[in-house]
Amino acid sequence: MKSIANLGPSPAAIPIVADDVLEFHAARLLLLLMLCGTKDRLQGLTKMAKLDFFVRYPQFFKEVCRHLGKDSSLPTDIVESSMVRFHYGPWDRRYYHVLAYLKAKALITVEKEGAAFIFQLTGLGRESARALSKKPAFTELVAHMRQVKDILGQKSGSALKKLVYQVFEDEIGEAKLGEVIK
């Protein structure tokens, strides 16, 4: 994964994949904190990762909505970027890198409360997330995040983890650690 600032010297014939761009993931996590958090704040890595999973895998979100008796009217044909099976369900190994980037850019604060990490937007992070949310390129993502928040936002990270394993035993629970979720 590279910063977009470091992609300039790349040969023009080599395509740039958004999944490999640091700022792409940073933008999504800023929006996740603003739209899926409470007062621009999320409590716990597990909750962040599970909400992010349902944002990145809309077809899994649609299935969990069906399981919960809720309606999801969003398209399900695109996987934004892949995640892997980890000890606690879907995970992205880049989280630590991206969260460190966001903290270094003074876009988020990270505090520890008991055993949980608390991620919160700073003033600059809030301004950046608001600006991103108004860009046409993020319209569908913003709408999807709002629906994820409405349906799953009040659940704890542990409850979301249990839900993922309950509903997606074959797709995730049976996958080997480190295997890409499809």
How many H/I helices?
Answer: 8
Envelope shape: globular
Q: Tell me the structural class.
A: mainly alpha
Strand order of the largest sheet: 1-5-4
Largest sheet: 3 strands, antiparallel
Count the E strands: 5
Helix content: 40-55%
> Which residues sit in consecutive blocks of at least 5 with pLDDT less than 50?
none
Structural domains: how many: 1
User: Rg to the nearest angstrom?
Assistant: 16 Å
Separation, N- and C-terminal Cα atoms: 21 Å
Query: Would you tell me the overall average pLDDT?
Result: 82
The percent range for strand residues is 5-15%
The helix/strand series, from N terminus to C terminus, equals HEHHEEHEEHHHH
Describe this structure in words.
The protein is mainly alpha-helical. 49% of the residues lie in helices and 12% in strands. It contains eight helices and five strands; from the N terminus they run H-E-H-H-E-E-H-E-E-H-H-H-H. Helix 2 (45-56) packs across helix 3 (58-68) and helix 2 (45-56) packs across helix 7 (157-167). The radius of gyration is 16 Å and the shape is globular. 31% of the residues are buried. The mean pLDDT is 82.
